Amino acid sequence: MTLAVFFGCAFIAFGPSFALFVFTIAKDPLRVIILIAGAFFWLLSLLLSSLVWFIAIKASNSQDHSLQRGLLIFGVFFSVLLQEVFRFAYYRLLRKANEGLAAISDDDSSAISVRQMAYVAGLGFGIMSGAFSMINILSDSLGPGTVGIFGDSQYYFITAALMTLALTLLHTFWGVVFFEGCEKSRWWVIAAVVGLHLLVAGLSLLNPLYEGSLPPVYGIMLLMGVWAFFSSGGSLNSLNALCTRRKAEAESS
Amino acid sequence: MRKMEHLISINCVKLLIATLFYTCVLSSSVEQKIYVELNNTVPCVRLLNATHQIGCQSSISGDTGVLHVLETESDLDWILSSGPHPPYMVIMETAFFNRSVMMRMKNSPRVAGVAVIVSKTGLADHFSPHTTCPNQNTGLYSENNAPELANCNMTVWNPFGNGLSYEDFSFPVFALKDENQTQVIRKCYEDHNLRVNGSAPRYPLCAMQLFSHMHAVTDTVTCMRRTDLQNRFSINPEVLCDPLSDFNVWTSTRPLNSSAKGHVADESVVIAATRLDGRSFFWEQAPAAEGTVSGIVTLLATIQALYPVTREAPPPRNIFFTFFQGEAFDYIGSSKMVYDMEKNDFVIDLNNVHSMLEIGQIGLRRGQSLWMHSDPVSRRNTSVDTEVLNLMKNVNSAAAGLSVKLDQPSFSQPLPPSSFQRFLRAKQIPGLVLADHNTSFNNRYYESMYDDAENMNVTYPPNLSPDEQLVYETEEAKSLAEVATLVARSLYMQAGGENSRLSNITADPKIVAQLLYGFLVQKNNSWFRSLLPPEVTKKGDNSILSSGPPQFYIGLGPRIHGPVHSVTRFVQYILANLTGSVTNLTESQCQNPSEVNTENKDFFSYFWVSGPASVNGTEEPFCVQASVRLSKAVSPAFELLQYGSRDYSTWTESRWKSIRARIFLVASRELEMLTLGVGVAVLLLSLLVTYFISSKAELLFSSARETPTTTY
């Protein structure tokens, strides 16, 4: 759909992650490393789950469409579970690394807290997930045509970009909440994260009502945002303090 | 730390490899949801000569336009002035493919391209995209020689010609021949582009993109100069255009020594000639039924009629049969043969030629007379005139007993466009051109895609199997067989043969019927398959034996395009079958006959042919010896490196990278801008919010930081 759509969708899908990267990650090399490693872990999980799906596809009858669809749904859910397993594995790795970091630092405390690592790991997952969802679609959006000749919606590119945006932020929030749950040994938190991830993945399978999947996903994203805020140390008090601080600054100026 | 770094560097490498693996393995399923590729594309390509470029061209990344079907005059107004979504890609119904509409399209910036529906419904009574005066600049009559006869001053040969093939279009023009594909396009148009109650259709709209970017520009001189520069200075030279070239086919009743060039002592030859090629507006489409096939079939039948008799009782003079390729493009084949004869580079030269009889368009006689055209300029010379009258007398007496009437046009009428004109340019030879028309062509679809079997009234009753159709003798077949008998007898008399033998010379209508079927309807038939070598018949659809009638466009020669030009091969092998004799050489001996003492490679060619398919499918190929030869048909201008020559043909065909077409939906400009706007807004908003939050992070996330030694 030409250059305007390409840039528009790229900005929508990767704008927030770009902003987060620039302002919170880029300055600290340790965070960059954790981000990239997180992206790699997500990539590994996708590779393994896609191998499973690919084998299942090749082993089955390619003409049976309902079977293929069933295999796709199975593949999606299996991939979600595998991503969460890898998130847990990454958590274990980071805990180990954190001990090592603390050992070699000067003041015997780690340069980065588990909460910060949780956020960066989640963002890493989110960026990689977004890249894989969106790059293919972006390259097709450069051509002169738009989706629709076979009856699909013409808003496909925008919808995909918005979905990617939501998914990136969701991965970030899930990372925070998940690591917090692992730290405090609260298993229901982990179960909730996995459940919500499965729900979002299921919503994305809602073709042809693809636009209809956006409002629920955004709702879940807002919910998760609030939950992540509270679990990473924020509170109503700090929000209050922020507002009064600003009011005080405004009055004093 | 080191452990971390080591881990991270390995991770990065693995990340890269995995990404590459993943992107290579994925096929773009989104692309399949957007585009419908149209597979059977028939483009119009660019041809160049010494001074001009003709044909069509798209921009390098294709031309896109919103589809609109041109069915009525109001559609034409919509496209050219009132439609709100220019540029348009015009789907043109057959009735609108004429000069006035195409010129209006050419001058309008609102037309991105044209796709012409090729069908018989709505076809006008006449349509010829060729010029009114074919080959007017390279024939016999010019400003220097008989200007009153030049440029069709006296007779307009092709009055229905609209010259579209010789116009230069800056947008792509494709032909839609496949009915199923046209249906797909129409459906897309009806679903999205129809006007409702006179108001403009709403986005998304169905659009088409055509790719046919041509590399050569301006004219042959420019293009060949650039190609020469590339060949000399570039490591990877890119050729921009290629000269049109192929082969002429010739044979003779007495075999000629092909290694002895130049004048042959004591040899007097009567030439019988016809043309092998045709053209149309689109690339490689040229059914050329009346224009070319009628001549080829008649000459082949003539050869078949003459051969038994010339074997038994050879006439004093040799009869030289030749099929010229490339005559549609300023007489490529005949000018090359005349040039070779002048340079003593051919088996005979012009002094060996006694007279010439050419077969022009003779398919649309419909029981009327056959006209004997002659050249008034050379007939001013009394000796030539006497010979021409003698030839006419021979032809008239050969017509005795046949149902063919003969007639002569008025004395001062010039020759129609024919290869004979090129011979006359070199030497005044007595000769005739036989045609079914007097002053202008009977062919209303000259050099167009509609000059097919139906134009020649070659139709078969329904419910016949292909093998039955192959041998079914239509009226046209019988009529052409009569003409072939006439020509054969005239040639025999002209060569000095005895009159008593004339009654034995008859053309077989069955052979004529088979030839007509093979050249007009289906070239992949059992008779053609039995004549061709086994490697061709085994390849099936990928070789020259694909389904359907053969196309007679000259092409670029075997060096550039895949298999050898099909028509040249067919004529060569048919001649081998009709005039050759079976030998018992093995396959390797057949391919290398010089190793066998009893065979003479100078006088004969050797062909390894399949033979008739037997019942249980086994073939028994054998070797045929025949005096059939090919001679190169490339314009002398390219040998002399005179790319701007006025005397010889300078036609070249441009090269291109890809020719394809696809349809898809396009969205409105407003939606695109909206997407961009939302994207920029999201980016700016997220930058602002993130900056704000990160600067206030201490305050917001103010709970105590965890101690790193918390055990899990």
From TrEMBL, chain A:
Q: Which InterPro entries match?
A: Aph-1 (IPR009294)
Any transmembrane segments, and where? Answer: 6-25, 32-55, 67-86, 117-135, 155-179, 186-206, 218-239
Give the keywords, sorted: Membrane, Notch signaling pathway, Transmembrane, Transmembrane helix
Q: Which family does it belong to?
A: Belongs to the APH-1 family.
Quaternary structure, per UniProt, is: Component of the gamma-secretase complex.
Q: What is the lineage of its organism?
A: Eukaryota, Metazoa, Chordata, Craniata, Vertebrata
What Pfam families does the annotation carry? Aph-1
Q: What does this protein do?
A: Potential subunit of the gamma-secretase complex, an endoprotease complex that catalyzes the intramembrane cleavage of integral proteins such as Notch receptors.
Name of the protein in question: Gamma-secretase subunit APH-1
Q: Where in the cell is it found?
A: Membrane
Q: Which organism is it from?
A: Cirrhinus molitorella (mud carp)
Automatic annotation (TrEMBL), chain B:
Ribonucleoprotein recorded as keyword:
no
Main location, first listed in the record: membrane
The record, for Gene3D superfamilies, names:
Zn peptidases (3.40.630.10)
Kindly indicate where the leader peptide sits in this chain: 1-27
Q: Which GO terms describe its cellular component?
A: plasma membrane
Q: Which GO terms describe its biological process?
A: Notch receptor processing; Notch signaling pathway; protein processing
PANTHER family under this entry? NICASTRIN
Q: What name does this protein carry?
A: Nicastrin
Question: Species lineage, top-down?
Answer: Eukaryota, Metazoa, Chordata, Craniata, Vertebrata
